Amino acid sequence: MTRHQPEPEPQRQPEPDAGRDPAAPAGRAAPTPDPAELPGGAAVEAEGIGLKGPRGWVFREVTVEAAPGSVVALTGASGTGRTCLLLALTGRMKLTEGEARVGGLRLRKQAAAIRRTAALAHVPGVDNLEPSLTVGEHLRERVLLQRRYGTAPLAALKAALRSPRQRRADARRVHDEALAAAGLDLATLPKGPRTAVRDLERLERLRLCVALALIGRPRLIAVDDVDLKLSAPLREEAWALLASVAASGVTVLAVCGEAPAGLPGDVPLMVVVTDRATGARTAEDAPAEPAPTADDTDETEKETADALAETGRA
């Protein structure tokens, strides 16, 4: 007797997933691109954000809407939370209320990713330069740190496969591009790259900080006290520097005592005026600022201490 085997049932092919890349392996969805690794500047969108510290609200009801490649001037009287707002928008201080996005990343839940894409260019008390080191030593140190800690795993693997000569050439290219973008000519310094930081003028120090930040190729840079102790011509040079950085596609957050009326090259400018009593307002709604007093100076010192403590915890 012949025993008949049952015919196998035809296998059904799985229907294609609408959210999956056809080139991706079966059963695995296409990876979502990381906004922190996307090219270009980072858009800044914040609505009703606030930060409360041990002494009450540092800032509140702040709304920001800036396109990539624009300059956001954070201005206001001393002690109104300008530096804390700068650190919060770069993922280095935790918000108490409101929601914000930087480069498509949610500030509350993706602060670590924002810190990888937002660089501090000049924030006294947080990223101070070492006065005894030279300009060249600062630049070489930043290039080495960026190569070791600031590179994505895949890019680091590709870099490791290059020859030592190619790696040195890549480092030199990044070094030169950052200096050119910051407008820092080492030949004009008193001792060239061997000039100590303590011997730099204030504007030269600002250019060095911007160059160090741009070595990491960030999408956003933050600068504190842009116009502090600068004459009117030097203030124009400082804002021209930030405008040129923004024109290259990098979004700039800048704390200042007085925002400029406009920027060279028609670079987009947004002014946010901070005020402890009423949060943040647009430049048109802000009243004239009174002259700073001794109480404002004391409040600024307290604000800086709180900012450092909160940044360390972040």
Describe the structure.
This protein has 314 residues and is an alpha/beta fold. Helices cover 34% and strands 19% of the residues. The protein has a 6-stranded mixed β-sheet, sandwiched between helices. A 4-stranded antiparallel β-sheet has the order 2-1-4-5, covered by helices on one side. α3 packs parallel to α6 and α5 (164-182) packs across α6 (202-215). It starts with 43 loop residues before the first strand and ends with a helix. Residues 14-36 and 277-294 have low confidence and may be disordered.
Write the layout of secondary structure elements.
Layout: E1 44-53, E2 56-66, E3 71-76, H1 82-89, E4 97-102, E5 105-106, H2 111-117, E6 118-122, H3 135-149, H4 153-160, H5 164-182, H6 202-215, E7 220-223, H7 232-247, E8 251-256, E9 269-275, E10 279-282, H8 294-313
Parallel strand pairs: 3-8, 3-9, 6-7, 7-8
Antiparallel strand pairs: 1-2, 1-4, 4-5, 9-10
Primary descriptors:
314 residues; alpha/beta; 6-stranded mixed beta sheet; 4-stranded antiparallel beta sheet; 8 helices; 10 strands
What is the N-to-C succession of helices and strands? Answer: EEEHEEHEHHHHEHEEEH
Q: Give the spatial strand order of the biggest sheet.
A: 6-7-8-3-9-10
Through-space gap between termini:
80 Å
Label the overall shape.
Answer: globular
Instruction: Report the helical percentage.
Output: 25-40%
Report Rg: 24 Å
Q: Kindly report the average pLDDT value.
A: 79
Count of individual beta strands:
10
Main sheet summary: 6 strands, mixed
Beta-strand percentage range? 15-25%
Low-confidence stretches: 14-36, 277-294
**Helix-strand category:** alpha/beta
Total number of helical segments? 8
